[in-house]
Design goal:
Radius of gyration: 21 Å
Largest sheet: 10 strands, antiparallel
Helix content: 10-25%
Number of helices: 1
Structural class: mainly beta
Length: 166
Amino acid sequence: MTHPFRPSVLLRVMVPAMVIALVALATTPARAEFVGAGTIFGASNCSWPTGVEMTRARYRAAEVDGGRGSAITLNFAVGGVNSYNFYTNLTPSRVWRRAAGRSIWGSFANMRTRPLVRVLQRQNADSSSAAQMQSASNVYLRMRIRNFNGEPGCAVTVALTMNRLD
């Protein structure tokens, strides 16, 4: 025996489920990502790059992303991708931060030589003040990366200007 379709039963089940889903989405932490571009320069002991290279970039700021860590992804004009993940904020300091590095050059690989990153400068791109990540809409980020692209001893400077993407 089949049961007749009853819209009232469907509504009693679906409406509370939809409300719960909307509340869950509304309470997720803010996710601030910045996208833009910049240059890689000042290479030392590297097989690549040998000069100035253009890169596109994506930056997830831990301060705004619920403390889940920061991440930088660099898409190179020559076709490769590097991704660096940190368990901390990327604020300027004299400290070299360890990163988990991954790269794609035709295939996906974890960087065997762990990258070290030192943030030299992070500021609002439209002023000279230090970037307050909660409210920044444009960010300038300059950092030095050791063991760049997984190459031991290779060091580069990366300068990026990015816009907030929410």
